[in-house]
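Structure, all two chains, one model.
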Amino acid sequence: GAGVSQTPSNKVTEKGKYVELRCDPISGHTALYWYRQSLGQGPEFLIYFQGTGAADDSGLPNDRFFAVRPEGSVSTLKIQRTERGDSAVYLCASSLAGKTEAFFGQGTRLTVV
Amino acid sequence: GENVEQHPSTLSVQEGDSAVIKCTYSDSASNYFPWYKQELGKGPQLIIDIRSNVGEKKDQRIAVTLNKTAKHFSLHITETQPEDSAVYFCAASPVSGSARQLTFGSGTQLTVLP
């Protein structure tokens, strides 16, 4: 596609529910990143995929957060037992392998009520 | 872990003037320093980056300087235009050649007044 696509653009969920956020990277980009951005703050690194494997998940805050990329393209970020503190914009980015220029999507705004 | 401080948090300049945003970092292992521009409702967009073996880099009206000894780096925008208005983020990473493990500053809201 023309850019990184994230769906949904907005998601409102109740505390304790499970959510999935989807990222479609730019075609051919093997590297994929998830970041989280709280209001008025810079993005925080969550996880990095090179191909299908999570090469670096050091930014995941706890075991309620999990991400997959089964075929090396689309990725899904999964959050279990959501808490109000999980409310943020979740950003996905992709890049060519070994390249520093990562292209970000517009993000999914998650609100936990 | 890495800590990146960014100043100022807001900056207003007249069109045509220069704007300077400054960042400091704490981890001497950081060797990659990108700058991102984020417009409302959009994801961050890389505008320029610098690696630790370079002291200055220019791209048209944008320049970045790096002082590794002092652990600070700056973004300079000359001849500012209204379309430069956005939030700008600096970032630092110990991983060269990748956008992973970027630690971002808290952002600078730049407003260019016509």
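The first strand of chain A starts at residue 5 and ends at 7.
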